Amino acid sequence: MIKIAWHELYAHPLPEGHRFPMLKYELIPGQLLHEGTIAQHNLFHPDCVAEAVVRSTHQKEYWEQLRDLTLSPRDQRRIGFPLIAQLLERELRIVQGTIDGAHYAMEQGIAFNVAGGTHHAGSNWGEGFCLLNDQAVAANYLLNNDLANRILIIDLDVHQGNGTAEIFQDEPKVFTFSMHGDKNFPFRKELSDLDVALADGMEDEAYLSLLHDSLKTAFERSKPDFVFYLSGVDVLSTDKLGKLALSKAACKERDRIVLQACKDKGLPLQVSMGGGYSADIKEIVDAHCNTYRLAFDLFA
């Protein structure tokens, strides 16, 4: 059974004025339930991750400032949200959801977190709506508990996974692959094991061809026994922040390429959803739902 991490705090941790960026986290499971792709038993509600597990990835001073809600106003502006207790709890549940999802992926082949993909959070900073790096913490959890030996993180959000790259810059057991807009945020890039920078306005055929070749390289170089995938839909032509020109069909084909490759190789795969900022919320939700629909076609 494919399992999906979801909690009500994913959608409602902030005052009303900040609700729109979070709305998709309520609408995605709602749509999947409505159309019958999933049932309630597919959803699980993660607890908060333990402090010791967070500390395996994030530095002590940064974590304590988050925990004690003492992060400076400047650092809160860098994150983009006011640091309040509910937001921190949301992040802790997201991280645990990705860890739990990794366990479920080892059983079923694939598992999801409706939120997550918080790849801008580095070892000692938060940025771009990201406080803690869920897939980085989960990757370290797998390594530290001898549940994986070599991990590949595939990041196809339109923004570089700078925090993930920084966290694993000296860790040979984790291979970071980021395919992202060259001139997009973050404007100071970190060095992934494989960075593929994309020109503004890139369209379907060029993108998918580049992904096919780059993904093959990533698998050959990493030789993973576990894969994390960040499937942001801010690559769409309709996205307000993306600067690429992909159709929804190409975004779906992108996901199919990744999911099929992992299935063919027998590699467990945890998927976190990442970004999506189209003006029409229906475009965001439908593109994200396509990832789940594909998974249920391939793995269920």
TrEMBL record:
Pfam family for this entry, one: Hist_deacetyl
Gene Ontology annotations of biological process type: epigenetic regulation of gene expression
Domain (Histone deacetylase): residue spans on this chain: 24-289
Keywords associated with the record: Hydrolase
GO MF term (any one): hydrolase activity
Lineage: Bacteria, Pseudomonadati, Bacteroidota, Sphingobacteriia, Sphingobacteriales
UniProt family annotation: Belongs to the histone deacetylase family.
Gene3D superfamilies, alphabetized: Histone deacetylase domain
Protein name listed in UniProt: Deacetylase
Family annotation (PANTHER family): HISTONE DEACETYLASE 12, HISTONE DEACETYLASE HDAC1-RELATED
Originating organism: Pedobacter kyungheensis
InterPro entries referenced in this protein's UniProt entry, alphabetically: HDAC_classIV, HDACs, His_deacetylse_dom, His_deacetylse_dom_sf, Ureohydrolase_dom_sf
